[in-house]
Fold:
Amino acid sequence: MLSPRSTEVVRATLPVIGGAINDITAVFYPRMFAAHPELLRDLFNRGNQAAGTQKQALAGSIAAFATALVEHPDVRPDAMLGRIAHKHASLGVLPEQYPIVHEHLFAAIVEVLGDAVTEEVAAAWDEVYWLMANALIEIERRLYAGQGATSGGSWRPWVVAERVEETGAVATFRLRPADDAEVAPFRAGQYVSVRVPLEDGARQIRQYSLTDAPGARERTITVKREEGDPAGEVSNRLHDTVRVGDTLELSAPYGDLVLDDADGPVLLASAGIGCTPIVAMLKRLVEDGHEAPVIAVHGDRTRSGHALRDERATLIGKLAEGSDLTWYETPEQPWPAERTGLVDLSGVELPEGLRAYLCGPLPFMRAVRTQLIDAGVPASAIHYEVFGPDLWLASA
Structure:
């Protein structure tokens, strides 16, 4: 993939570029947004920018891609590229935006590293960038085509048919198409983007997992109000202003954490609002009449804050061999001591051939993944979904 000469240069300079990549992205984003304020207003998540998590995710993906090119030159890191492409497609990223990123990213590299960026070094890293960018553009083109959408054009209006208050901080919105056009199919575990107009004129975008059964014509999303500093612009807007009869803009469904068609045992592990894609997976397993063991693991702070708790329990009860294992950090009523605190799989019997799907905060998923691997579950059988920027690579 990478030319032999560029491979040598990237291998030699990867420690320097990798070591400075956080400084580079700290320069890159302000430069790009100054030249193209519409990208921050309508495409990039302003909350993630303020928190710095988007910078970490970009840094991690670039470093991981370059490392893969030099260490495994005959294998393209398609899993990483696919995950990024699904997120880009849900946002409506366009091919013509990649040259904008290139211009300001490379200007930031030169600004941070100065004379260390020789013509040879610049050419080698330019090759890295366009290998990654062109691969993403092609994957995104196929994703758009698969949804019957032109590049960046999968948005359509949906009307709120029902709003349900799940907990004090979580609400479910059930939506129906505003027209009679055909509804794109989706797979259990996928998400949609929601584009919301804000008071300052921005149209910010966030992703929310679908909790419907895959064949549903409606779209159901469950949204947690994000508090803190910065507070979630979109989640708070949805909670505070969106009622039955209002219209929201949704993208077509995307996401690569999807339940496969195998018949073997499954472990579904979630924490907090990470329960949402798991509910869709449980519905799919129930509809399919899945007969192998299904171990549903969930961790939450309290029982009263556990969103979709009853629906999840009902679905597990409909499975031939469903097991419900829930941990609460602070139980509000009598609760088994062995399931008080953080999720701990050390006493859970895991059947052979297990496939695991994880969704929740990164520390939770890292801990569960480690426990599964220690128990003999192959890393290739463990799949995960991150809400927001994927910091797994950035923190590896």
In short: DSSP finds eleven helices and eleven strands in the chain. The mean pLDDT is 92.
